[in-house]
Amino acid sequence: MSLIQAGNVRLNVVERGRGTPLLLVHGYPLDHSMWQGQIDGLADSSRVIAPDLRGFGTSDVTAGTVTMEQMADDLAALLDALKIKVPIVFCGLSMGGYVAWQFALRHRARVAKLILCDTRAVADSSEAAAGRRKTAEKVLAEGTSIAAESLVPKLFAPATYQEQPQIVEATKQVILRKKPEGIAAALQGMAERPDVTAQLSKIDVPALLICGEHDGISPPSEMRQIAEQMPRARFVQIAAAGHMSPLEQPEAVNAEIRTLAQ
Ligand code: MLT
Fold first, then answer.
1. CATH fold label, 2-261
2. Which of 24, 40, 124, 146 is the most exposed place for a label (fewest CB within 10 A)?
């Protein structure tokens, strides 16, 4: 792990392996550790790069609002800092997917292929955005346990809660270690993220859309529709997984990533 100056922010980054760069971008309110199964499983064939986004893990925190566009630009600055000039495979989960859309739209030449895991293209409804802003205030006032309590029961498939409770507990601990300012800033950023549905037809790189069959946050039916609107996308559903499919079923997800990334 190392802290790398990327534009005006220092990002913590884990790097392993050689080959085409595979950038793994975590969801809210997590960090690079959710990709351990991919770091271990894919570094034999890719240069795996798993950063903590601004405000998460041990990266610098910016209070206020951190937009998805800002996070995408941070990642472009990170690639500059790592002297990566070749187009990369960008893989983002959920909030990491919101960042992926912005990266693909703002830094098109840097993207060879796109992997969207358990994510959405639409913006928040006004009620959902208001709910996020309220949660941001509560997290600042009361701490990160609010975020852990509301989110952890929604993240996983029923089988994961029963058969892999260690994953559930580890995820909860990751959320509890976060800084309230980082969580609140990302909530504000997600609340104001744009709807990218009308732009999907322009994102014409080879793309893979991965969704856990029990994902209730970004359901398979919605992700299948996103894939249908992209010119070169394939949709795949992962059995016995919820919203955290790469963490819940790393082997199945890695097999799909390999088919696209190589
Ligand atoms: C995530 O996993 O990143 C979040 O569920 C995204 C969201 O709250 O929209």
1. Rossmann fold (3.40.50)
2. 40
